[in-house]
Write a structure and sequence with these properties.
It is a single chain. With 290 residues, the protein is α/β, with parallel strands linked by helices. The chain has two domains: 4-202, Zn peptidases (Aminopeptidase, 3-Layer(aba) Sandwich); 211-289, N-terminal domain of TfIIb, CATH 2.20.25. Helix content is 24%, strand content 27%. The chain is built from six helices and 13 strands. The chain has helices at residues 16-27, 46-51, 66-70, 77-89, 121-133, 174-195, and strands at 4-9, 38-43, 99-105, 111-116, 137-141, 158-165, 205-216, 227-229, 240-241, 246-250, 255-257, 263-266, 278-289. The strands form two sheets. A ten-stranded mixed β-sheet has the order 2-1-3-6-4-5-7-13-12-9. A three-stranded antiparallel β-sheet has the order 8-10-11, with no helix packed on it. Strand 4 (111-116), helix 5 (121-133) and strand 5 (137-141) form a beta-alpha-beta unit. The longest helix has 22 residues, at 174-195. It is globular and about 60 Å long. It starts with a strand and ends with a strand. It binds zinc ion.
């Protein structure tokens, strides 16, 4: 049974959609009330929200691995906040919430991206439920590469990130807010149906993507970016990139093409990843009959 749910916004301070929705639900709590469920709300990084920045010292959504939490040499606004949140929400093996839903946005065309940090019947049923209700849902998994997970939502045994895009950082966008809110309400519908054992037993093929790598921007000897994402892949998140397809247009007018095996791509030209000079991520598609 899922009894206590936490809805989170502002883990990244400039992803304003989640902040706006959490504020809205705090004003109008009846919108998220459900029979038999305790649903709380949280603004995760108030300092970053105030500054309208992703983070102040360190990405808060990279602070919740046991390795980081136990490292006493690490300091800063987000580390302090991470410890405060663990005190408030409970630790990974003793979380006060059965499910955490963390609301994010992307500047890339990520559609309604639901991010998994683990694979089990509950999470697969939840993703399947969502895929059958919205044709803009794309499931990705970050479970494989990260056993000791660093996401805030990974504090809870059940968790999901809702990441909607494209939307500019720090802006409020009607359609993005609506997509995020409707997705959250569908997730609550799922929990109600799950608790009441009213999920449809019809078979469904669950589709998700697993991350395989990151492609960096071309840079010169000084580390300056000297080519941008080619227009032919701009906005083409979750499409198949074939060998020989253009990926970068260089300052000198030349075109760099994809040399590896065909691969799916995502986070194409994501603004939040420029600090790491990541141009896009690569993924492989997985299918499972449920
Ligand atoms: Zn985010």
């Amino acid at each position: 049974m899922i009894k206590k749910i936490l809805l989170v916004g502002g883990t990244h301070g400039n992803e304003s959609t989640g902040v706006f929705l959490i504020n809205k639900w705090q004003r109008f709590p009846h919108l998220i009330q459900r029979e038999g469920l305790q649903i709380d709300t949280l603004l995760a990084n108030p300092a970053a929200i105030k500054a309208n920045r992703r983070y102040i010292d360190k990405d808060l959504n990279r602070c919740f691995s046991n390795a980081v939490l136990k490292d006493e040499s690490l300091q800063g606004v987000e580390l302090e906040r991470a410890h405060e949140l663990v005190g408030q929400l409970g630790s990974k093996d003793n979380c006060r919430y059965d499910l955490i839903i963390d609301l994010h946005t992307s500047t890339a065309n990520m559609k309604v991206n639901l991010v998994l940090t683990k694979h089990d019947d509950f999470h697969h049923q939840m993703m399947s439920y969502m895929q059958q209700r919205r044709d803009d849902v794309v499931v990705t998994s970050e479970a494989e590469m990260i056993p000791d997970h660093h996401f805030l939502c990974s504090l809870s045994p059940h968790n999901v990130i809702v990441e909607v895009g494209p939307v500019a950082q720090g802006t409020l966008h009607h359609q993005t807010i609506e997509r995020t809110e409707q997705t959250t309400l569908y997730l609550l519908d799922f929990v109600e149906a799950y608790n009441q054992q009213q999920l449809s037993s019809e078979s469904h093929q669950l589709e998700w993507f697993e991350y395989t790598g990151k492609v960096k921007y071309p840079v010169n000897a000084d580390g300056q970016i000297i080519g941008c994402v080619h227009q032919s892949i701009q906005g083409k998140d979750f499409s198949l990139l074939r060998t020989g397809d253009p990926i970068f247009i260089m300052q000198d007018g030349s075109v760099i093409t994809h040399q590896g095996e065909p691969t799916y791509i995502s986070f194409v030209n994501e603004a939040a990843y420029y600090d790491q000079q990541i141009a896009f991520c690569t993924l492989q598609k997985k299918l499972k009959d449920l």
